[in-house]
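Our platform keeps sequence and structure together, in a single record for each protein. Because each token names a local backbone shape, the row as a whole describes the fold. One such record is reproduced below, unchanged from the form in which we store it:
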Amino acid sequence: MDNNVILAVSSALVERSTIAFTFNFRGVGGSQGSYGDGIAEQDDAKAAISWLVSQPVVDVNRLGLLGYSFGAAVALPVACDDDRVKAVALISLPPGRLQVSQLKGCDKPKLMICGTDDFVVSIEQAKLMNQEAAEPKQFELISGADHFWLGYEAVVAERTATFFKDELENFVAD
């Protein structure tokens, strides 16, 4: 949660009067527990969502979920399966058959954003994931950005905050 990407996006959201709640997965920073192969971390994300929606200031009808890198691989299945989550932003989503399958089946608004110089996610892999993803979706390649987004934090933050503001601003409960 102290990562440059997460901090930049959180700041951009707060500047738009949007609540930004960050947390560490188990075994990271001061959090108890140990690495759970991306499966146990989904429980961490669900627990964070449950705590967040219990807060009186949170509009439970306008909840988005963001994940960056490993966090994107965790956020994707959680967002797609949890009705409380209305939109998901995936920054530098690591490629894989499981992610492609999840993207195909997820009909929630999605932002997939990747740098053209990402050494974890190739342009071809990012484009394939976008091609396979169900609508609604937005896809953006940021020229020159690598996996760590150093020097591109403002760009990824602006794009992500705008996505959430646009997707969640007028959302009304079913």
Notes: The first helix runs from residue 4 to 15. Residues 26 and 33 are 5 Å apart (CA to CA). The domain at 4-22+63-168 is CATH 3.40.50.1820 (Rossmann fold).
